[in-house]
Specification:
Blueprint (H helix, E strand, L loop, with lengths): L1 E4 L3 H13 L4 E4 L2 H7 L7 E5 L7 H10 L6 E5 L4 H9 L4 E4 L4 H12 L9 E2 L2
Amino acid sequence: MIAVVDDDASVRRGLARLLRSAGYRTQTFASALEFLERRAGDDPACLVLDVRMPGLSGFDLHEVLTGEGLDVPVVFITGHADLSMAGRTVKADGVDILAKPFDGQALLAAVERALTRGQPSLVRLASS
């Protein structure tokens, strides 16, 4: 299951549709808090996290999950990518950070890399 956490409803719908079309089961959440409150035992195989959201950011959510001992691969997405953010992604062990708007194939490739994370992490700023 791929969990998508983004405060923009149209982004959540679009990403869920894209991921389902590639054969992934998805769940969407409007905020990091909603994810923390609604997740129930079925931890995701991968998280697609918006970096900037009201309340807890994607980075904050990743830190909470890591603190709980949950080692889940993450693909960060953002409309405000920069090099300092890419550096923070490396520290957070994110697989990729994609700048919005991004190509659907770029997201699917990032998710695939996240799911096969046995290889060294790769961080790229990617946009269409």
